[in-house]
């Protein structure tokens, strides 16, 4: 990027900061800013240095038509080779955190832990050391959707044995990297994993309806809690890190504000998404409304058992309390009203109709992503009240566009969502300790391919060198981190 382009973007970023926000709060001292990536979306080198085949490798190679532009992550941002540039970009932001994920099949090509791949371990050692050498804290996601294909052949997350495999994998990660990694996320967005088993939204691209959906969720909760307890028993005293699981959730707002039936529908939707994973961890067992409604739905169709599996008393205790902080991934809000919806995004067991037709909500190029910062504010207060105000890090939040460098809509999104965060901190005393933007780099956006970009840094995918160019939003985000304010004063 020429020096002129750079200056131009800085000017744009600063002009955009001129505040249209009514009250100007500051981020507290020690507030942790960062940016996030995921292995399959950026690394490339899909079969290099002994890496095994993951469910994403299998899907994109065997069914390329399942990805919008027929593309794949074989090369992606080539971060496997260019990781130092990625770390330098985090450094340039003055961010405290780099959240990235580890590719399970680099560590263990089949997922079997007695057959490790030393070169994979070396790669993450190099990456972690580079991060630390730049005074950045690594936050490591153990699983961001790239299950070893071999484990999928055993049934993947629908087989409860996966919890044992995950615990062994976690042990290898704690043993090899835990001396330097102090922030762990076991699983990224368990609900989205389940959508890969129920509605072909991701790999392994299965259509197992509610049975696969709830089973995959159940196993992931068990896997998460096993990793958490393993850390407590074998590593915590020495390594002194923190562990959580990144739970994603829309905020559902009642469509007809004061209508009780719609308010109940919105509350149900929140319990069926966020509560599905947060309730077992922060309160114990599945949300009562979820248990009741799913069991009743099964009865209605004459099934003698429930598709929502049951935890034993012992499992409930193990899962309860298995997070050191609340890790929230949040992008958008929807309206909910009572009724039956055919939209597969809306869980039909919960009987709510999801909509996003509010003309005051700015849209994006993805139908599901609307700009609703007040939804984040409400969600943060909902979490505070529901789970007794846990320390919370927003581990993902981001906006999608066509990849333009002068990304004013992204600046608007970040600014208004950070303003909502500041309101929750200062007006509602929500215990929010960090914000990690999704994502550092434009990358492989799963089944949407390369036409949809969330990055604050652009990557030229037509150039084999994959050059990176910071966008206006990068400069804007940096000035927020530097000043701790949204108005740049
Ligand atoms: C996240 N929704 O997924 C993932 O963690 C990222 O890997 C991904 O690139 C990013 O968001 C953008 O899609 C989500 O429908 C996908 O609300 C969909 C939703 C939320 C998160």
Tell me what the structure shows:
Helix 1 (about 5-15) crosses helix 15 and helix 14 (about 375-385) runs parallel beside helix 15 (about 410-430). The chain is of the alpha/beta class and about 500 residues long. The strands form three sheets. The protein has an eight-stranded parallel beta barrel with strand order 1-2-3-4-5-7-10-11, surrounded by six helices. It is globular. The longest helix has about 30 residues, at about 210-240. It has 16 helices and 13 strands. Strand 10 (about 390-395), helix 15 (about 410-430) and strand 11 (about 430-440) form a beta-alpha-beta unit. The model has no long low-confidence stretch (mean pLDDT about 95). The chain binds 4-nitrophenyl beta-D-glucopyranoside. 4-nitrophenyl beta-D-glucopyranoside binds near residues 248, 332 and 438.
In angstroms, what separates the terminal alpha carbons? 27 Å
Provide a count of the helices.
Answer: 16
The mean pLDDT is 95
Helix proportion: 40-55%
Proportion of beta-strand residues: 5-15%
The helix/strand series, from N terminus to C terminus, equals: HEHHHEHHEHHEHHEEHHHEEEHEHEEEH
Structural class label: alpha/beta
**Largest sheet, strands/sense/barrel:** 8 strands, parallel, barrel
Q: Characterize the overall form.
A: globular
Number of strands: 13
Main-sheet strand order equals 1-2-3-4-5-7-10-11
Small molecules in complex: 4-nitrophenyl beta-D-glucopyranoside
């Amino acid at each position: 990027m020429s020096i002129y382009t750079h200056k131009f973007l800085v000017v744009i970023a600063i002009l955009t900061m001129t505040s249209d926000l009514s009250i100007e709060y500051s981020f507290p001292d020690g507030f942790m800013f960062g940016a996030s990536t995921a292995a399959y979306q950026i690394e490339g080198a899909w079969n290099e240095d002994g890496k095994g085949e993951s469910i994403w490798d299998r899907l994109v190679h065997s069914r390329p038509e399942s990805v919008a532009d027929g593309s794949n992550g074989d090369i992606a941002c080539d971060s496997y080779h260019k990781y130092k540039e990625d770390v330098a970009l985090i450094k340039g932001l003055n961010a405290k955190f780099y959240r990235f994920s580890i590719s399970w099949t680099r560590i263990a090509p089949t997922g079997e832990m007695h057959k490790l791949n030393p070169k994979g371990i070396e790669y993450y050692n190099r990456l972690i050391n580079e991060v630390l050498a730049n005074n950045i804290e690594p936050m490591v996601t153990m699983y961001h959707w790239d299950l070893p294909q071999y484990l999928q052949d055993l049934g993947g997350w629908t087989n409860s044995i996966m919890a044992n495999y995950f615990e062994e994998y976690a042990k290898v990660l704690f043993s090899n990297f835990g001396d330097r990694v102090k922030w762990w996320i076991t699983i990224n967005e368990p609900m989205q994993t389940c959508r890969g088993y129920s509605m072909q939204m991701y790999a392994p691209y299965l259509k197992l309806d509610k049975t696969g959906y709830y089973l995959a969720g159940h196993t992931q909760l068990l896997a998460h809690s096993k990793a958490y307890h393993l850390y407590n028993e074998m590593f915590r005293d020495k390594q002194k890190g923190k562990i959580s699981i990144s739970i994603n959730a829309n905020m559902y707002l009642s469509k007809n504000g004061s209508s009780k039936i719609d308010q109940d529908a919105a509350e149900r939707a929140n319990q069926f998404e966020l509560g599905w994973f947060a309730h077992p961890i922060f309160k114990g067992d599945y949300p009562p409304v979820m248990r009741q409604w799913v069991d009743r739905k099964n009865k209605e169709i004459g099934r003698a058992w429930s598709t929502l599996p049951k935890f034993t008393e012992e499992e409930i205790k193990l899962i309860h309390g298995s997070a050191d902080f609340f890790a929230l991934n949040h992008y958008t809000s929807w309206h909910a009203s009572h009724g039956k919806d055919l939209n597969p995004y809306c869980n039909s067991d919960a009987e709510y109709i999801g909509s996003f037709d509010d003309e005051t909500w700015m849209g994006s190029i993805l139908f599901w992503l609307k700009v609703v910062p007040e939804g984040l504010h409400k969600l943060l207060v909902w979490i505070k009240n529901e789970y007794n105000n846990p320390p919370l890090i927003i581990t993902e939040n981001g906006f999608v566009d066509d990849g333009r460098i002068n990304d004013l809509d992204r600046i608007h999104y970040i600014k208004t969502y950070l303003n909502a965060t500041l309101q929750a901190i200062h007006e509602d005393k929500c215990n929010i300790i960090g914000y990690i933007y999704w994502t550092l780099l434009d990358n492989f956006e799963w089944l949407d391919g390369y036409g949809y970009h969330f990055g604050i840094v652009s990557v030229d995918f037509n150039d084999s060198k994959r050059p990176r160019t910071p966008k206006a939003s990068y400069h804007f985000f940096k000035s927020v981190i530097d000043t701790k304010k949204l108005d740049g004063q």
